[in-house]
Amino acid sequence: MKHREMFEYLLGVSSEFKKEYEKARLKLDFGREVVELRKEKGISQEELANRVGTRRTNISRIERGDQNLTIATMHKLASALGGKLFITIRGRYAALVPREYREFVDKLAREESKDPETVVKDLLVEAIEQRMRKQINAPLRTWFPSAL
Q1: pTM, entire model
Q2: Which residue pairs from 64-69 have beta carbons closer than 8 angstroms and sit at least 24 positions apart in sequence?
Q3: How far is residue 17's CA from residue 23's CA, in Å, rounded to a whole number?
C-alpha cells in the first residue's frame, strides 16, 4: 500500500487519526504556504528568519508544520513574505467575499448543499473561465465579426 493510500485509509477508518490530522492540518497548510511564498520570492530560510527576527531552525519547524505559532508570528511571516494574514471565524471565504455578499453565498451554499468555500470557489472558477473565453474570442471578433 502506498503512503497516500494508507493515509486515505486511516482517515476513513480511524476517527482518532482524522481528529489528530485535522488539528495538525492548519499548521501543515500554513507551513506549506510559507515554503511556496519563500521559494517564489527566492528567499532562503536564513533570510526569512532574519526578516522575522528568529532562527533558521524555527523557520524549518514552521515549514514542516511542527511549530505552534502565535498570531503575531504569523503576521510577521506574512509581512516578511509580502503577504497578508487573514483570520476569520466564518471560514476562509469570508476573507475574500465582501460582507454584503456573504448572506447570498450562504444562501447558495444551503440551496446547493455545499459549504460556502466551495460555492465561492465554483463562482470564481466560473467567472475566470467566462473571462478567458471572452479574451480568447476577442481577437476573432476583430477579424471575423460576422462569424461570431
Answers
A1: 0.62
A2: 64/31, 65/24, 65/27, 65/28, 65/29, 65/30, 65/31, 65/32, 66/27, 66/31, 67/27, 67/31, 68/27, 69/27, 69/30
A3: 10
Distance between CA 66 and CA 116 in Å, rounded?
29
Residues 108-138 have pLDDT tens digits of 999 999 988 899 889 989 998 898 888 877 6
What gap in Å lies between CA 87 and CA 70, rounded to an integer? 12
Rounded to whole angstroms, how far apart are CA atoms 30 and 2?
25
Q: Classify domain 1-85 at the CATH topology level.
A: 434 Repressor (Amino-terminal Domain) (1.10.260)
Domain boundaries, the chain: 1-85, 92-148
Q: What is the average per-residue pLDDT within 131-146?
A: 68
Residues 6+ apart with CB under 8 A from 74: 30, 85
Distance, CA of 94 to CA of 114 (rounded, Å): 15
Q: Residue 88: CB partners within 8 Å, gap ≥ 6?
A: 94, 95
User: Residue 45: what residue type?
Assistant: Q
Residue-wise burial string across 116-135, b where 16 or more C-beta atoms lie within 10 A, e elsewhere: bbebbeeeeeeeeeeeeeee
